[in-house]
Amino acid sequence: MRLIVENLACRRAGRRIFTGLSFALEPGEGLMVTGRNGAGKSSLLAMLAGRLKPDAGAIRAEGIGEATLAECLHVVGHRDGLKSALTAAENLEFARDLLGDPAEEPGAALAAMGLPHVARLPVGYLSAGQRRRVALARLLVCRRPLWLLDEPTAALDLASQGVLAAMMGRHRAEGGLVVAATHQALGLEDARELRIGPAAPETAPVEDWA
Amino acid sequence: MIRAFSALLARDLKLAARVGGSGALSLVFFLMIVVLVPFALGPDLNLLSRIGPAILWLAAVLATLIGLDRLFQSDEEDGSLDLMTGAAVPLEAVVLAKVLASWLTTGLPLALASPLFGLLVALSPKAMAATALTLALGTPALAFIGAVGAALTATIRRGGLILAIIVLPLMIPTLIFGVSAAEAALGGTVPLATPLTVLAALSLIAAVVGTLAAAAALRWSE
């Protein structure tokens, strides 16, 4: 698939976060979204995921047939979408059935993330890094062309960061897209970088008191 | 489509059964209210059996509110809702599956347990059967109306009170026809079929309008 973003603007709680953001991603490309805290990295990912309405501009996807963009992407962010009362395997089985297009078995995906022993453990017992790895295992249980990752390496140890880099490399080699908001190098080879700057100053409406 | 729907249903039923689920809690709350009423009114069996169906219905309406605020909020907080917007099914189907699961764990047990609780308010066997029937037909309406409020307050922390204030006035028609159907069964001026069909119609309307409205509320939450 191709992802085209044109002139995107974001407004939250009445305040302009960014304006005039444009980029296009070809199959196999990766994009690192950088910027200071509060620059709108997570908001950009939320817009791509369809959870936030753009203030202006358009997001288009080509080559996905009749599916909507939201049905073609994986989101892994700060809120991991895991239920503490369910086991890691149950969480992944649910994600696979909900999202459709199954790829790897939950057990195999957990093993790939180095967590084969937690499959039958409720997620509530896991550490922050282990939870993050279970959420990342979701990327493997169903096949979707666009990965949206919000600071994917937060709470991850060095070995897991390597595993994630290899996963992203494989995904891109198969023609997938990766958009990652990050402050650190992710091991995304020859990825493009999009730096979100401050929004252009808004021309305040002129108030005429005369 | 069916697979995603049944996965959602199975997950919510599983969560209700695990620690922190609210399934049994609303049944206990139902019992509490029904137990309190005879203490407040005194041992006047004629009075109790006359207002019994109304007490059971009031208790059912209040018990529906227990755990309702967590219906979408828990998924909003941990990001599961983001997962569901990207599901292979439309958000309406997600809402339908979640409300169905919540009715199966709160509304249906209430209807099934109501004959037993009817003993506490001196209902005759016929009145018990009538109340159970009306609750079985009417609680789906309560669940779907409640879902709209739950979707509206999903992003509000401690939105339980606001939820009750939004939702309770909308439950009044269901309450009226539920109680009048139960009383019509005990002999009255209207035949039983009239309020009962209205009650069933309210449930069907609530199922359609509630599903669409709750999905729209979830989409616009940001």
TrEMBL record, chain A:
UniProt-recorded name of the protein: Heme ABC exporter ATP-binding protein CcmA
Coiled coil, from the record: none
Residue span(s) of domain ABC transporter: 3-207
Entry GO MF terms: ATP binding
UniProt keyword Translocase present: yes
Taxonomic superkingdom: Bacteria
InterPro entries: AAA+_ATPase (IPR003593), ABC_transporter-like_ATP-bd (IPR003439), ABC_transporter-like_CS (IPR017871), ABC_transptr_haem_export_CcmA (IPR005895), P-loop_NTPase (IPR027417)
Entry keywords, A to Z: ATP-binding, Cytochrome c-type biogenesis, Membrane, Nucleotide-binding, Translocase, Transport
From TrEMBL, chain B:
UniProt entry keywords in alphabetical sequence: Cell inner membrane, Cell membrane, Cytochrome c-type biogenesis, Membrane, Transmembrane, Transmembrane helix, Transport
UniProt cross-references to Pfam families, sorted A to Z: CcmB
Signal peptide residues on this chain, from the entry's feature table: none
Transport found in the keyword field: yes
Subcellular location: Cell inner membrane
Regions that span the bilayer: 21-41, 47-68, 89-112, 132-154, 161-186, 198-218
Domain of life according to the entry: Bacteria
NCBIfam families tied to this protein: ccmB
Family the entry assigns: Belongs to the CcmB/CycW/HelB family.
Purpose of the protein: Required for the export of heme to the periplasm for the biogenesis of c-type cytochromes.
Protein's name according to its UniProt entry: Heme exporter protein B
Name of the gene encoding the protein in the UniProt record: ccmB
